[in-house]
Amino acid sequence: MGRRILSHIGLILAVTIVLFPILWVLRTSLVPAQDSYSSAILPSVTLDNYRALFAEKNFGRNYMNSLIVASLSVIVTMPLAAMTGYAFARFRTGGRFARFATLASQMLPPVALALPTFMLFRNVGLTNSLTGLTIVYAAINLPFLTWILMGFFEAIPEDLEGAAMTDGATRWGAFWRVVLPVAAPGIMAAAVLGFILSWNEFLFALILGGSNTATVPVALASLQTSNGVQISNVAAGVSLAILPLMVAAKFIQKYLVEGLSFGSVK
Amino acid sequence: MSEIKLNKVSRDYGLGNFGVRDVSLEIEEGEFMVLLGPSGCGKSTTLRMIAGLEETTDGQISISGRDVTRLAPRHRNVAVVFQSYALYPHMSVRENMRFGMKMRKTPADEQKRRIAQAASVLGLEPYLDRKPSALSGGQRQRVALGRAIVREPDVFLMDEPLSNLDAKLRGEMRQELVKLHRRVGKTTVFVTHDHVEAMTMGDRICIMRNGSIEQVGAPLEVYAKPRNTFVAQFLAAPAMNLIEARLSAEGEVVTLDAGPVAGPLPEREAALYRASVGQGLLFGLRAEDILTRPKPGAQAFEGIVTVLEALGPENLIVVEAGEQSVSVRADRHFLPRIGEKITLYADLAHMHLFDASSGDAIARET
């Protein structure tokens, strides 16, 4: 009994340490600006910071931009990544080199690509456009998601496709009717990861975006003005930015656990 | 009309690596053919080539007189039962069985009828709406069978379907499969590395090694007349005893000298093997042909008991006789002590002789 209480105290402490900064941001977003730096926990509660963010800073637009770009890039990438990953897993397409190249592209620092991308996109008129940003995010996500999905497909026994194909399905039919449904948890997990990656991306959003196409991370950064950091607005913005990630985390937890254990179903 | 013909079939992986090489085999309509061999012998590859899941790089495969060598699996009208069962995990038992019929656009009421029938034959009725993950190994095995049966294919292909089951269940399923085959009467190819399955289930067995066929024949025929030492040793446990031997002749009498077992051959064997006098030979005798009681024509020899496995219905005994260790299948009442010196009788009427260098059997026509 005593040991259980002790371990609970330890766990509560650990959780507090992890959660405290996030809770403090939430607290700061909910108190009036003049109380932002006070040590009082909740002197009074207001939604003014949120209101200001939307009324004065065009945050609603930024939020929509982020949602559109992150969702679209995942929607564009997933079918391509699934097919490429399957080809790598089953047909050894491109051999070791293609696999290595896929992984190697992840090792390049993004900033090395930022400038060339900017030049290219400026020439074809894709700067300051959500389409341009979507293309970049899709390109960033593709190798990463391909790699993850390849792993999931490799974990699926090949006999499943053999069974489907002798049962009368084409190779495509076996992929569509058997492999994809079986890999669904893994595919969901990969999609959520891709979404988070795009949602959080800052560098390309900053360089390629303009005032109309700024995403949430860029908008948050712009709150650090020459008049100092508007901490109450930043806190409100961060709280909202975390929201989809919380939802995604809930999802990914469920699917990742399933995704990692689905190979055991034979 | 659903015989299978393999004509000089090969699977070349490149760089001189062959999974299967120049295999020719005819499997008759309605026959239960067992492909038997150690792992890596090409038996599963052969099965997968018949199914179309493995590319045939050379030769022809025909099913029901139709050349299927280059046809996709779905056009061959074969059903495969995999070792892993390969049930679709996201579908219920019913959907698993229905999948193949749906792909082939079997009418819905016919689908229902076949599923109901297969479920009743296999005792799957209570589980039709369960997912495979909620079934035991034996039940999954039945679903895999059911999925194959409802398709009503020309040919059943089974790739070690029993090896994931525990021993008791395996014995039961063995008998059920044979019954099922008798009832359905479809041409079946059954891959296994288990000689008991091969002996008990096959109409004929085809023993393979290193991608080639060693011998094809009815189980008892192959057992009685193994073509070489590999077949002789693979088709039984304990494996056939093999002892280096020579024959010598003096007048009508042909004498065997096989280490501990030495003496004149019986008349019939003497006539048969006279031509091999002086050759380097291997003398083969199955464990059950070494007796614990004297018998006319049986050659006595002595050995020291080193291993005794009392199995219940019988005892397996290993004795050291000279330099040789010899396996003996004795009845359950014969229980020597370890280290005891016992007298055994080699029944030469059932002896085998092989060429020492090639391992091929010295022909005997009986």
Automatic annotation (TrEMBL), chain A:
Species name: Roseibium aggregatum
Domain ABC transmembrane type-1: 63-253
Name by which UniProt lists this protein: Carbohydrate ABC transporter permease
Compartments, record wording: Cell membrane
Family, as annotated: Belongs to the binding-protein-dependent transport system permease family.
InterPro entries xrefs: BP-dep_ABC_trans_perm, MetI-like, MetI-like_sf
GO biological process: transmembrane transport
Membrane topology: Multi-pass membrane protein
Positions of transmembrane segments: 5-26, 67-88, 100-121, 133-153, 174-196, 202-222, 234-252
PANTHER family per the UniProt record, alphabetical: INNER MEMBRANE ABC TRANSPORTER PERMEASE PROTEIN YCJP, MALTOSE TRANSPORT SYSTEM PERMEASE-RELATED
Coiled-coil portions: none
Main location: membrane
GO cellular component, one term: plasma membrane
Key words, A-Z: Cell membrane, Membrane, Transmembrane, Transmembrane helix, Transport
Domain of life of the native organism: Bacteria
UniProtKB/TrEMBL annotation, chain B:
GO term, biological process aspect, one: carbohydrate transport
Main subcellular location: membrane
UniProt keywords, alphabetically: ATP-binding, Nucleotide-binding, Transport
Keyword Ribosomal protein: no
Places the protein is found: Cell inner membrane
Domain of life: Bacteria
Pfam families in the record: ABC_tran (PF00005), TOBE_2 (PF08402)
Keyword Nucleotide-binding tagged: yes
An annotated GO cellular component: ATP-binding cassette (ABC) transporter complex, substrate-binding subunit-containing
Membrane topology: Peripheral membrane protein
Molecular function GO terms recorded: ABC-type transporter activity; ATP binding; ATP hydrolysis activity
Residue span(s) of domain ABC transporter: 4-235
NCBIfam families named in the record: PRK11650.1 (NF008653)
Family designation: Belongs to the ABC transporter superfamily.
Protein name (record): Sn-glycerol-3-phosphate ABC transporter ATP-binding protein UgpC
